[in-house]
Specification:
Elements lengths: L11 H7 L7 H7 L1 H11 L7 E6 L5 E6 L2 E3 L2 E6 L3 H8 L2 E6 L8 E10 L3 H14 L12 E14 L9 E6 L4
Antiparallel strand pairs: 1-2, 1-5, 3-4, 4-7, 5-6, 6-7, 7-8
Helix pairs in contact: 2-3
């Protein structure tokens, strides 16, 4: 349903919903689907720190895929992105896809898509920089000032569960934001 304001014009949120551009925070996703969010978090953090593949949209419309380190904190999904094409992609076109690293014993996977947005709040950046270092037992430096912090809103998620490598009947659970 499209929502019109008093002048009969479509509201911004209605246009974004129509375009499929409304995303929710990790916390909103977690409240809506706690089991799916817990499974997603476990797969993203299966190696002790957040590890995933991030796909962004190049200027020519093609995909770009790189590994990255997601951070789930205080109801949000975040990442520090180093200077380069991936960072430029997210500033220009916030669409993304995120996929967990492969598991050693099976083909379980967590995948989500949505929109990323730069975060400029110094307190949020400081808290996430501290978390980034703490997750690595203090063995790394805090993200540099050129490493931009992004928040990743969720529009769709997919959880795949398998009984092992080569499972002929993987089980898929799909979630999408009801407001899209």
């Amino acid at each position: 349903m499209l929502v019109e304001d008093s002048s009969g014009s479509l509201t911004r949120i209605a246009v974004l919903r129509r375009l499929g551009a409304v995303a929710v925070t990790w916390g909103e996703f977690e409240r809506a689907e706690p089991g799916l969010a817990d499974a997603g978090r476990a797969l993203l953090y299966q190696f002790g720190v957040g590890l995933a593949f991030l796909a962004t949209v190049r200027r020519d419309g093609g995909p770009r895929v790189h590994p990255m380190c997601p951070l789930i904190h205080d109801g949000g999904l975040y990442a520090f992105i180093v200077p380069g094409p991936k960072q430029a992609d997210l500033h220009r076109d916030g669409r993304y896809a995120l996929h967990s690293f492969p598991c050693e014993d099976n083909e379980d996977a967590f995948y989500c898509t949505g929109r990323a947005q730069a975060v400029d709040d110094p307190a949020t950046r400081r808290a996430l920089a501290e978390l980034f270092v703490a997750e690595r037992s203090g063995g790394v430096a805090a993200p540099a000032s050129g490493d931009h912090l992004f928040s990743f809103g969720l529009q769709r998620c997919l959880l795949t569960r398998t009984t092992g490598h080569g499972d002929p009947s993987p089980q898929h659970t799909i979630w999408h934001n009801a407001s899209t």
